[in-house]
């Protein structure tokens, strides 16, 4: 960036991302803040900085710069008087992915982060303006800066793992593909890294060689240590629609709330490119956007989100429920909400593991769409998830084949999706068909062997990427024998639990004070709206439990059977 540049044009407002505050709003913030003079060249926020204030430009101009101080620094935005700085990461505890540098002498208003949280909770109009702006800015930031660099081959399962973690958690990042990007090899040579050492993650002055999910999450500011957490009112395990609803409602009602998820917020719904039949969104909304909004709501009311953080065991003592995490930490809570959901079942075909992570995927988001460009892909399943994936991927892939075992798409799929599929010229529906074989070498899928279940005919279908969206398996392995499960592994609740102790209330498991909501619960309706409803209902039951037992958790409730 040229430091002698005399005139800077302010970045135009885009979709409400860069609003200008009114006199009244600035006065409201001034009561909680201090004014700071700034000189040209002052770094107000440094790239990578975690602890920072909410800044409002009162006079002068401030540039948002990526890679400030390096030969490749780049001006991304310019903000003038009455605009505020930063984006969603300020509220969620992430480091800044850019620097903010004064370009003219002026003055800023510095609001401490704790005061900003109070503003968001107590001043609805101003709080909503800030939240809407931050959500829009994160969306724009993802598409406009390099962020964290992930260098690796598209055929590497670890590369895909890291890309998925970054994409699912909405971390600004750039994937540099060893197979396609002409600059990848030069970059690796400069860093003295061989292709065999990839994938690598690069951000600022750090280079991580094939980091674990936890290491990448630490760099991106997604996760902090839970080792010394004080006792809380509610631990929500799972951050899909049900878990996020439980978090929003419990935190909004004054309960200290911690939310965990092993992968990302949004759950299975977060992998949906567009949900078109969710109440209140006539134009539809992506699962990721829905999750982002819920996360901001939960943070607004004071919920503490830790992602990725995997629960591995549930125990209890005389007074508390105890959730053990994968890093050895323990969370003590008066109540627990199990919202770990379900995952798609795997195809029962030989060599599946060989292609998972390189050619077989269980989500259809923009990340997967990049791999599908001009490729033939196949989707297995007849439900809404398969339908949404078919519609979305048909906009990117050369050919999409939807494989179903029966002959009627209307049987398990919403009519609006069936209509869209039937209108897509590059979509072929293979009815009465099952996958019998995966064909390819070195983890690179080339075709599927399929069988017509009516005629018995076997043939091959060209395919480089396969998306199975079939059935569901509950994510309850971490529960072991701590609560009662049905024969398929789903959590039993309420009248389903056989026990000599007092009968659990609706949504309560065989362990008093432990509730289950959403897809993980036996007999639940597998819809986003239903999951949200159950998550919100759980909070009322938590209040009832705390009123009955206070600080003394009951030891009754041996796991029973349906």
TrEMBL record:
Keyword Flavoprotein: yes
Comp. bias regions, Basic and acidic residues: 1-10
Its EC number(s): 1.8.1.9
Domain Cyclic nucleotide-binding positions: 17-137
Residues covered by region (Disordered): 1-21
PANTHER family linked to this entry: THIOREDOXIN REDUCTASE 1-RELATED-RELATED (PTHR48105)
Protein known as: Thioredoxin reductase (NADPH)
Organism: Actinoplanes digitatis
Native organism taxonomy: Bacteria, Bacillati, Actinomycetota, Actinomycetes, Micromonosporales
């Amino acid at each position: 960036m040229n430091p002698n540049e005399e005139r800077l044009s302010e970045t135009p407002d885009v979709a409400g991302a860069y609003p200008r505050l009114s006199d009244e709003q600035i006065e409201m913030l001034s009561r909680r803040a201090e004014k700071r003079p700034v000189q040209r060249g002052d770094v107000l926020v440094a790239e990578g900085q975690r602890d920072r204030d909410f800044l409002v430009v009162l006079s002068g101009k401030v540039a948002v710069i990526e890679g400030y101080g390096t030969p490749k620094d780049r001006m991304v935005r310019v903000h003038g008087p009455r605009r505020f700085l930063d984006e969603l990461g300020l509220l969620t505890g992430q480091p800044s992915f850019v620097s903010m540098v004064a370009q003219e002498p002026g003055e800023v208003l510095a609001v401490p982060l704790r005061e900003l949280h109070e503003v968001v909770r107590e001043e609805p109009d101003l709080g909503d303006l800030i939240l809407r702006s931050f959500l829009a800015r994160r969306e724009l930031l993802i598409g406009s800066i390099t962020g964290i660099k992930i260098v690796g081959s598209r055929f590497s399962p670890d590369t895909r793992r890291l890309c998925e973690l970054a994409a699912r958690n909405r971390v600004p990042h750039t994937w540099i593909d060893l197979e396609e990007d002409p600059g990848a090899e030069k970059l690796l040579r400069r860093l003295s890294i061989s292709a065999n050492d990839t994938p690598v993650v690069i951000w600022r002055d750090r280079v991580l060689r094939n980091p674990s999910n936890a290491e990448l999450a630490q760099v991106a500011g997604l996760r902090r240590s839970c080792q010394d957490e004080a006792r809380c009112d509610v631990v929500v395990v799972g951050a899909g629609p049900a878990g996020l609803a439980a978090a929003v409602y419990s935190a909004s009602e004054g309960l200290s709330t911690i939310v965990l998820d092993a992968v990302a917020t949004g759950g299975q719904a977060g992998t949906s490119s567009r949900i078109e039949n969710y109440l209140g969104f006539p134009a539809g909304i992506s699962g990721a956007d829905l999750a982002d909004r819920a996360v901001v709501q939960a943070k607004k009311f004071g919920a503490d989100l830790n992602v990725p953080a995997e629960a591995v065991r549930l125990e209890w003592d005389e007074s508390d429920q105890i959730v053990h995490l994968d890093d050895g930490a323990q969370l003590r809570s008066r109540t627990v909400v199990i919202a770990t959901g379900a995952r798609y079942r795997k195809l029962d075909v030989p060599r599946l593991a060989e292609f998972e992570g390189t050619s077989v995927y269980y989500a259809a988001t923009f990340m997967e769409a990049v791999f599908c460009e001009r490729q033939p892909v196949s989707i297995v399943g007849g439900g809404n998830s398969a339908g949404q994936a078919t519609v979305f991927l048909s906009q990117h892939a050369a050919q999409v084949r939807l494989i179903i075992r029966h002959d009627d798409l209307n049987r398990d799929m919403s009519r609006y999706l069936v209509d869209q599929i039937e209108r897509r010229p590059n979509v072929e529906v293979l009815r009465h068909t099952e996958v019998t074989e995966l064909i390819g070498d070195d983890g690179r899928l080339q075709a599927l062997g399929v069988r017509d279940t009516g005629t018995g005919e076997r043939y091959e279908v060209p395919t480089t990427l396969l998306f199975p969206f079939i059935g569901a398996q509950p994510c309850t392995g971490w529960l072991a024998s701590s609560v009662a499960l049905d024969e398929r592994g789903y959590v039993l609740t309420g009248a389903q639990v056989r026990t000599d102790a007092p009968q659990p209330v609706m949504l309560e498991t065989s362990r008093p004070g432990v509730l289950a909501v959403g897809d993980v619960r036996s007999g639940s309706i597998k819809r986003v709206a239903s999951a949200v409803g159950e998550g919100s209902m759980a909070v009322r039951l938590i209040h009832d439990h705390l009123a009955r037992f206070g600080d003394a958790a009951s030891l009754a409730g041996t796991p029973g059977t349906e």
